[in-house]
Structure formats: C-alpha cells, structure tokens
Amino acid sequence: MALMGQMMSAPLLISSIIKHAARYYGGTEIVSRRTEGDLHRYTYRECELRARKLAQALGALGVKQGDRVGTLAWNGYRHLEIYYGVSGMGAVCHTINPRLFPEQIAYIVNHAEDGYVFFDLTFLPLVEGVAPHCPNVKGWVLMSDRAHMPAESKAKLLCYEDLIDAQDGNYEWPQFDENQASSLCYTSGTTGNPKGALYSHRSTVLHSYASALPDALGCSARDVILPVVPMFHVNAWGMPYSVPLVGAKLVFPGARLDGASLYELFEQEKVTFSAGVPTVWLGLLQHVQANNLKFSTFRRTVIGGSAVPPAMTRALEALDVEVIHAWGMTEMSPLGTACKLLAKHEALSDADRHKILEKQGRVIYGVDMKIVDGDGKELPWDGKAFGDLMVRGPWIIDRYFRNDANPLVDGWFPTGDVATIDEDGYMQITDRSKDVIKSGGEWISSIDIENVAAAHPAVHMAACISAYHPKWDERPLLVVVKKPNAEVSKEELLKFFEGKVAKWWIPDDVAFVSEIPLTATGKMQKLRLREQFKDYRLPTA
To answer: Which UniProt keywords apply (predicted)?
Structure first.
C-alpha cells in the first residue's frame, strides 16, 4: 500500500494570489493610465478589497460559479479587479480582443455564452454595434463612474463604479476544486472562427509560478513591471497573476501604446521590466532613436508573439535593455519557452552568444516538447533537423471549449510550428507550418529571410511569403515597408542578402508597400498578404 504524505491540502486558486499580494505586499503600488485621461494610483490592498466588492456585486446580479463574464478592456486597474473578482468567486473571466472584427466579437460572446460584458469607455461605439447581435447578454458594464455614463444607449448599460460602491467588501473568497474553470481566451481566428482555450485555477497558478522563475520572466518584488502586451491577449502572458504573486509594482499603460506615451510612463514610474510583441518595440525604438533618448531604469523585456529580428535585439541592447526571447500559444496559457544563457555560455564570444539568444529558448518547468517528421517519428536534438513541434504539460489544453474534437496526437498538442531543437534543449522556430516556403521540394524559412531584411537600415518592416513559380512551385517574395524618408532599391536589398543566407534562399523579388496588415494581436497577417499577392508574377517565372 502506498504511503501518503501528511501535508495540508489547499486548492491552488487564483484568489490566493491577490490575497497574498494584499497581505504581504499591501502597500505596493498599482499605477494605471485611465481611459478617462488621468493617472490612477492605489495599492494591492485596495485592489483586493475592490475585487471582493466586485464578486459581491456579481453575486447580486445572479452570476454563479461557471458562468462566463466577458471583458473588452485595456490594461488597467479595473480590468485587474475583474480578473480576480470574477475568477475568485468561481465564475469564468473571458477576455475578448477588441481588435477583432465586430462579427467575430459577436460570435465569441455568443459562443462563450457571456452573461455580462465589462468594457472600457473607448469601446462604447463597438459595444453599441455588437450588443444587438448578442441577445443573451444581460448587461454591458461600462468600466467608469456615473459622470461618464452616456445619456442613452442601444445596449443595456450598467455603471462599474456604482456596482462597486453598492457593496461593503465583507466577502470571503470561496474554496472549491482547483480544476474548476477560471478564465477563457479565444485564438485570434486568422483561419475560420476563433477557438476557446478554457484554463483552470490549477493550470493558471502553476503557470504563474513557473513563468516568474529566474530563467523564465524573472519577476521580483524589486521590479517595476509594465505589461505592454494586452490583458486581452492570452491574459497578458499571465503577468496579471505572476506580478502580484511576487509583489512587484505594476504599471498599466491603458490605451496609449505609442512610443512617446510608453517612454513617458517608463521614465515617470521607473519601469525596470516590460513585455510585448515586436511591433510595439518598433514604435518605442523609433521614438527613442529619433529624439536621442535613453532609458534610466528600463533594463529587460520579454518579446514574443512572433520572432524577434536580431536588429531589434541589438538596438535594445545598445540602450542597455536585455531582450528575453519567449515563445508560447493561447493553447499553452501561453508561456512555453524563454531564452536565457546557461553558465557554460558565459565564456562564448558576443557573436556566438547572440546566435543562442536569437532562438526561442528552453522550456520552463511544466512544459515538455519534441519535434517529429511527417510520419510522426521523433527527430534528433541536433539543431539541424527540423520538424513539427509538439508540446504537453499541465497548462496546455487537451481540447477546445465546447468542441468535442480532440486536437491531441498521442497525448501531445501539435503547435503548427516548424522548429529545431539543439543538444542543450534550445528550440528555434523556423516557420509556421502554413508559412514555410517549399521551393523545389526544399524548405526555406520565411523568418530567416525577414530577419535579414529587417537588419537593413532602410527597412521598417518585412514579410516573406511564397509566390507561384512554374519550375520550383514556390519561391520567396519579400514584401517591405520602408522607414520614413528612407530609400532603397530592389537590387540593393537583394544584394544585402549575399553571404547571409544560402544563395537559393535569396528572394526572387521585392514588393514595396505602404503597410503590412497586422493581426488583432500585432503579428504580421501573412494570410492577407498571400491573398493580396496571389496573382503576382515573379520576374524569374
């Protein structure tokens, strides 16, 4: 008979994180740039009290455990209160990406069966348009005070501050099974309807622990942390949980994510650490470089969502900012890997260390991964063989919300990425399986092509897509947005590739455009580009 341990049994619940922050870091600040235009300051202690009041208010509205409560909101203190108030009472916090098409938002609200939806003032016109198509929503809660409520509306509006003010906060966080659903995030839906990933309290707390580790995000109570990645994008990569867990000061940028506004907030609040997708840092770097500025306290950032161009890494390092390359997915809560050096790498040259840091990194504890060929056979970890990337772990989905089809293959989740893994376990994405260019039966990495192009001083943004070729089936076409007032010819750009990639990888042509379409989460929308250039005739064809 097995000998059982004799330890206390306490469920891993999201409410325990904010209780911990309020009790042990109660005076630590949360600073938010509000949609009303001002800067709001309060503490973890006040945040936890208001989250309890919100839980009371939701109970008074008839919200029960398991009910879905939606949000259409920027990063701010009220959104944080909803994260904890909704999940803490046992309901499900469903963050919705407001950058999606209104038809997709209506689909998501209806598919999730949201009973109430909380939204920021910015999104009132969006809500007015979507509300008539969401008949099951009992109320739309404007996240502001009575003074900002519109005189009339097509939606059934409630006032957030009125809901909070009506409660006394005399509320105990309930205890329940840690495997109960806590929050719901939908994929960005670039192909077909978005799909829902339903997280549990257990998976979220474990993800928070692991992501805060030194060789992951490395969060500390000594940090001032500003998540630029939106709270509607996979729960801001878990930072609304991992930051209170360690008791760091939290700074929320609200709707103003331009370079000048971010720089002002970084300096004013003495931000040390941030996180966001590459397109955000492009804007910040442009502002800093154009105005010959420096950062006084900002020292590290996690960049994910898509591959970080080496030129961006070098530009941030020149400003004394360490870049931590990370990778994950909505289906993974989202963090899977982070790229930090091992002790043995300290003796390497700068060039060799950068080759490692350009990879997506090693798994954090809790995630297991492998690469397989087209027949499902596991491939070696030699840094050369590339195949389909598969993952498994306690914060990775085993199926999508309200979808009985099992996406797993022999217990592993297929990520849709093509990758290599080296002997030290460093994983590098070579492409999305749908973006890889198959030329004459050989694969060309669109990411590698984009990274070379992004290093050219005249290039603001570059995307590499396949174009039809009668002999080779597909050849790379480079689509480029030039920097303001910069000039570069097609011939100059193609010559720039010489010696940097295999000769047969060099794109057959360059198309200059005014902008590259982005997805709702700030990634380049290659599906739209491929549609735009579907009839493009290469000069080599």
So the answer is: Fatty acid metabolism, Ligase, Lipid metabolism
